[in-house]
Design a protein that fits this description.
The chain has one helix at 44-54; strands spanning 7-19, 25-41, 60-65, 76-79, 82-92, 102-110. It is mainly β. Strand 4 (76-79) and strand 5 (82-92) form a beta hairpin.
């Protein structure tokens, strides 16, 4: 058992629920609660790199627990009472080679 403990984060997935009269898909938000997610401020070096590459300003980096199979690419997340949006491709390490409980990380920006 590790001494580091993450927080509960709500991941908002879009689920197709039908089609409108023009045959376009209709989506609804489906909240998924993910336990034990680490939230850390993004380093200033990473902020500058992401701003240059994507034009987005990373505020926090989320560490995702091992075994999580949710889609974390370009989705909304809720934590600290605010709405955030992930961007970029989540970076993933090999589970067996990483000693702690987290093997993925993704950056988030403020989303209103």
């Amino acid at each position: 058992m590790s001494r580091i403990k993450g927080i509960e984060v709500t991941l908002i997935n879009k689920v197709e629920t039908g089609k409108d009269s023009f045959k376009n898909p209709i989506f609804e938000d489906k909240p998924i609660v993910v336990e034990n997610v680490l939230v850390a401020p993004t380093s200033s070096d990473d902020i500058v790199k992401q701003l240059d590459l994507t034009g987005k300003t990373a505020v926090y980096t989320l560490a995702i627990p091992k075994g999580d199979l949710n889609n974390w690419q370009d989705v909304e997340v809720l934590f600290f009472g605010q709405r955030w949006r992930t961007f970029g491709i989540p970076l993933e390490g090999i589970e067996k080679l990483i000693p702690l409980d987290w093997n993925k990380k993704v950056m988030v920006e403020r989303y209103e």
